Amino acid sequence: MLARELAEPYPVVDLDTDAFAAARLLADQRLPGLIVNGDNGRPWTILPGSQVLRFVVPGYVQDDPALARVYDERHADQLFRPLATRSVRELLPRKPPELATLKGEDTAIEVAALMARLRSPLVAVLEGGEFLGAITVSRLLSMLLPEAP
Amino acid sequence: MLARELAEPYPVVDLDTDAFAAARLLADQRLPGLIVNGDNGRPWTILPGSQVLRFVVPGYVQDDPALARVYDERHADQLFRPLATRSVRELLPRKPPELATLKGEDTAIEVAALMARLRSPLVAVLEGGEFLGAITVSRLLSMLLPEAP
Lengths: 149, 149
Fold this sequence. Notes:
2 copies of one chain form a homodimer. By secondary structure, chain A is of the alpha/beta class. Chain A has a single domain (about 5-145), classed as CBS-domain. Helices cover about 40% and strands about 20% of the residues of chain A. Chain A is built from 9 helices and 6 strands. Chain A has a 3-stranded mixed β-sheet with strand order 1-2-3. In chain A, strands 4-5-6 form a 3-stranded mixed β-sheet. The longest helix of chain A is centred in the C-terminal third of the chain and has 11 residues, at about 110-120. Chain A is elongated and about 50 Å long. The mean pLDDT of chain A is about 95. Chains A and B meet through helix 2, helix 3, helix 4, helix 5 and helix 6 of A and helix 2, helix 3, helix 4, helix 5 and helix 6 of B.
C-alpha cells in the first residue's frame, strides 16, 4: 500500500489565515491541530490547539493554577477576542516544529518508519509538491494491523 | 463551566492489557493515543500510536528510509505479530510522559491553562480518584470559543 492510498483529506490553513477562523476549524472539526502552509504555499508545520491556548491564556494564569481558578469565567468570551485581529503566523511558536512529509509513492512501511522515528501522529503526503492529504497514525494502524494477531 | 461537564468518555487500558488489543483500539476508534492506568489503577500516562510503531518497526528500518523502502510489504502482517505476546507495559517508553490530570470541580480556564502550559492535547479528569473522562483541546475550544469573534 502506498502513501497516496493512505492519505485522507485534512484541513490546511495559510500563514495569513485569520487566527479566529483557524481556532473555529479546530473546534468544529474536533482536530488536535491544523496543517499550515509555509510562504511557498506548501505544507510546512502544524498549529496545535494547545498553541492557540498558549496565545490567549495570559502567561500569569498559565503559570499559577490559583490564578486560573479565580479567573472570571465571564471573561472567557473576551479571552478569544484578540484572535480576530491576528493571523495564524502570529499564533505559531517562534520555532515551529517541522511537519513530517512523504511522497505519494512512498510505502506504508516508510510511513510507519517516519512516524516512529519522529514520534509523529500525523504526516502530510505531497505529490509533485502538491498536498494530497494527511495520514494519521490511527489510519495507518487501521490499514496495516490484522484483525487478529 | 467545570471540568466534569467538559469530560467525555475516553478509552483507558491497563499496564497488563494485551498490546495487540491496545493497538486495535487505537485503529478502531481512530485515536492518536490511549490513556493508561498505572499500577494503582488510576490514569497515569498516554500510549501514543507512534509508540506502537516504534515498538514494532525494526530500529534499522526507522533509521534508514532506504531500508524502509525495500522492506517487503508482505511482512507487514508479521510486523505486528510480537504484539500478541506483549503487554501495554512493555510498549511504553522507558520514561512515560506524565498524563495531565484535573479534578471535576476545576474550571474551564484551569483546563485551558494546564493544556497551554503542558502543550497537551488531552487531559484526564478525576473525581475522588476515579476517572470521569477526558477533555481534548478541540472539545475545550468548541465549548469556550464564541461563534464569531
